[in-house]
Design brief:
The chain is an alpha+beta fold. It is about 30% helix and about 20% strand. The chain contains eleven helices and ten strands. The strands form three sheets. It has a six-stranded antiparallel barrel with strand order 5-6-9-8-7-10. The chain has a two-stranded parallel sheet with strand order 1-2. A two-stranded antiparallel ribbon has the order 3-4. The chain starts with a helix and ends with a helix.
């Protein structure tokens, strides 16, 4: 999580909370524990109470322990207490565990560790506009500073934000593909489609709140381009014609499809090329197609 966003989240706890960021350089890291306490805590901050985690270490070579800090507090006139470590049946919550869960795409576990859903923030840049040509424009994010989660398709909420890290205004729900876009060999991207949204977002800063990972990234075969989903969102004419009988059948079975996809709103758009329409739908919803027969 970038520093600006961390500060915003901390201030959300209490608007009067003062957040101080101190550079961590070689000189600071080389301080002995007593110099750290006398300098930063007493002289710079005027500390009266210092709260740390049970496994807190400080000073050069992590020489200072909680007991060291408590002794220094007695000498310099500040109280010290330790916050118990939090966790669950998988172990304690830590930044290391959060990063591992992000890398694996385990959004539920990330939410448990962070106490909030995982977020990505970036600026919308011009892409190749393949999605727009097929009727589902996507916002391509550049400058994402957060750790990128496992490649795949994610359900999300999208906010528009002003300055980096600021709270935003909810625009819409949607889906995002994070990865190499193997179907069109277009290279890595973080691209999101917003449901029921019409507007120019180029240059806008967006925050994607990743609700859940729907599936891994995979190439669709035979020139099919799609976001998987619970709705047959749009059937276009001409080159993108989908057999109307099949479309009606898909709409008829939409409740069952929604139930199987756990009621997460998503999007289906099918680019047919030379592929048979029935086979196109089979790629995304094979069980539903079987029910239709």
């Amino acid at each position: 999580t970038p520093l600006a966003r961390k500060i915003t989240l901390l201030r959300a706890i209490d608007p009067e909370l003062r957040v101080i960021v101190h550079p961590f350089d070689a000189a600071f890291a080389a301080q002995a524990p007593d110099a750290f306490a006398a300098g930063l805590l007493v002289r710079d901050l005027g500390a009266r109470v210092v709260a740390v985690g049970q496994n807190f270490r400080f000073g050069q070579g992590r020489a200072g322990t909680f007991e060291t800090l408590r002794e220094l507090g007695s000498a310099h006139g500040f109280d010290v207490w330790a916050e118990p470590l939090a966790g669950d049946d998988r172990g304690r919550w830590s930044s290391t565990r959060a990063r591992a869960d992000v890398a694996a795409g385990n959004m539920d576990d990330v939410r448990a560790v962070l106490g909030r859903p995982y977020e990505l923030e970036g600026v919308v840049a011009h892409g190749q506009q393949r999605g727009r040509a097929l009727g589902f424009p996507t916002a391509n994010l550049e400058g994402v500073a957060e750790a990128i989660p496992a490649r795949g398709v994610y359900a999300l909420e999208v906010e528009r934000v002003g300055a980096p890290g600021d709270d935003g205004v909810l625009l819409a729900g949607g889906v995002a593909n994070i990865g190499l876009r193997p179907t069109v060999a277009a290279g890595f991207a973080v691209e999101a489609h917003l449901f029921d949204f019409a507007g120019d977002l180029y240059g806008a800063r967006l925050r994607l709140t990743l609700v859940s990972r729907l599936r891994e990234e995979r190439a669709n075969t035979a020139r099919v381009l799609a976001f998987p989903g619970a709705e047959l969102h749009e059937v276009r004419g001409g080159e993108h014609q989908l057999d109307l009988g099949l479309a009606d059948a898909a709409r008829e079975h939409e409740p069952a499809l929604r139930e199987r996809l756990e009621d997460i709103p998503m999007l289906v758009n099918v680019f047919l090329g030379t592929l048979n329409a029935h086979e196109s739908l089979r790629l995304f919803t094979p069980e539903i197609v079987a029910d239709m027969q």
